[in-house]
Fold:
Amino acid sequence: MYSKKLMDHFQNPRNVGEIPDADGVGVEGNPVCGDVMKLFIKVDSGKIVDAKFQTFGCGAAIAVSSMITEMAKGKTLEEARAITKQSVADALDGLPAQKMHCSNLGADALHKAIDDYNAKKTGS
Ligand code: FES
Structure:
């Protein structure tokens, strides 16, 4: 039911933790299951140079968090914003249909972290 890649990212999640001096933080919760994801980004010259996460959630949510932080690193903010729940699911070699909402959590947390960075930068 779960791909090998998903199981790998669930069992050996990358980028777990927090970035104390993060440039942007995004928090997203899933009202259906109650799972919560917090995503931190560090930005330099318009690029995401580091990303970490703390997720209280199901296995798929952990794997999504791990993969999305890997995908975001090295990307410009525009490129990272283009990451969707579908592209994360594809990168994990697919998610079961009933678990697609878990990848939504990751994409939304990343987009919120970018919004937070932009808001801090413009001081709004
Ligand atoms: Fe809640 Fe997966 S069941 S995020």
Q: What stands out?
A: Helices lie at 4-11, 59-72, 77-81, 85-91, 100-122. Residues 85 and 107 are 5 Å apart (CA to CA). Strands lie at 24-29, 36-44, 47-56.
